[in-house]
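Weekly puzzle thread! Below is a chain. First person to post its structure in token form gets bragging rights.
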Amino acid sequence: MKILDKSAITIILDEPMAKEKSSVAEGLPFGPKNYILMGAALASVIIGYVALGAGSITLAPILLVLGYCILFPLGIIWRDRDDGEIEAEGK
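Winning reply:
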């Protein structure tokens, strides 16, 4: 049976955590444009429901469809291109 001192255990335990944190920071799923699009979708949906409550039969459905069918999906799937991705497509 091998006995490790406290510093060796600390090094062993800290090393995988450092790698995990860096991979999470590099692969964040959403960027600023995603949050802007989802915020616009949320605003469109809220205004659409307010307009629906006020009795609008033209503006409300347009805003609700815009928010639910266009802006929310765009906010989820939008991905900014990196410089490396643009150069790879050009080759």
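Puzzle host: Confirmed. Bonus trivia for everyone else. The two ends are 58 Å apart (CA to CA).
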